[in-house]
């Protein structure tokens, strides 16, 4: 069994794509996953599964469509990958977990996708891409960041973001 964090994109935001966490846990248990725990209402599930990351993603996306009639993207990271995300933080001096975010992608961004992004658009906001993850340092917060809007416009719905506090909590939950 592998411990994974499944990150659902765009649920329970602004009253849209409502998925109660108890129902999400039940869905995961119904898929045969063990030790299922959710964290806050934004679609964070830690679970144990015997299948590959791709198998977990496919099963969860299909079950979300069947159960809730929602086409949602799911991005998965293993417990070991979560630890690596924390270890590779390029902004270790940032101590406010609401100013640092990680966007997780299903696969690394292609060179043409990266070329669309302007890291100097709105200083002091900046980002670093590391494999399938993008670290965003947003001293003014996500809600007012022009850089975050720019990235969203250029990349669309390719990934899902979590603030640093959530990333740290998922690491803690995945230690089994």
Order of H and E elements: EHEEHEHEHEEHEH
Describe the main β-sheet briefly.
4 strands, antiparallel
Number of helices: 6
Shape summary? globular
Unreliable stretches (pLDDT < 50, length at least 5) are none
Strand and helix layout:
Elements: E1 2-8, H1 21-30, E2 34-39, E3 44-49, H2 53-68, E4 74-78, H3 79-87, E5 100-105, H4 111-115, E6 126-130, E7 133-137, H5 146-155, E8 159-163, H6 164-174
Antiparallel strand pairs: 1-3, 1-4, 2-3, 5-7, 5-8, 6-7
Helix pairs in contact: 3-6
Can you describe this structure in just a few lines?
The protein is of the alpha+beta class. It is 35% helix and 26% strand. The model has no long low-confidence stretch (mean pLDDT 94).
List its traits.
8 strands, alpha+beta, globular, 35% helix, 176 residues
Would you give an account of this structure?
It is built from 6 helices and 8 strands; from the N terminus they run E-H-E-E-H-E-H-E-H-E-E-H-E-H. It has 176 residues and is of the alpha+beta class. The strands form 2 sheets. A 4-stranded antiparallel beta sheet has the order 2-3-1-4, with helices on both faces. The protein has a 4-stranded antiparallel beta sheet with strand order 6-7-5-8. A hairpin with a 2-residue loop joins strand 6 and strand 7. Helix 3 crosses helix 6. 32% of the residues are buried. The mean pLDDT is 94.
């Amino acid at each position: 069994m592998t411990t994974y964090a499944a990150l659902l994109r765009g649920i329970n935001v602004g009253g849209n794509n409502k998925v109660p966490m108890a129902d999400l846990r039940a869905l995961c248990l119904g898929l045969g996953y063990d030790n299922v725990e959710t964290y806050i209402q934004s679609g964070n599930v830690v679970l144990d599964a015997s299948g590959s990351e791709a198998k977990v993603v496919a099963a969860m996306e299909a079950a979300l469509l069947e159960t809730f009639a929602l086409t949602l993207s799911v991005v998965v990271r293993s417990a070991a990958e979560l630890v690596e995300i924390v270890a590779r933080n390029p902004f270790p001096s940032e101590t406010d977990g609401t100013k640092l975010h990680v966007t997780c992608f299903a696969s690394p961004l292609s060179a043409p996708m990266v070329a669309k992004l302007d890291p100097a658009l709105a200083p002091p906001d900046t980002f670093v891409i590391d494999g399938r993850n993008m670290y965003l340092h947003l001293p003014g917060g996500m809600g007012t960041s022009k850089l975050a809007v720019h990235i969203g416009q250029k990349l669309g719905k390719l990934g899902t973001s979590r603030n640093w506090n959530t990333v740290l909590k998922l690491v803690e939950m995945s230690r089994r």
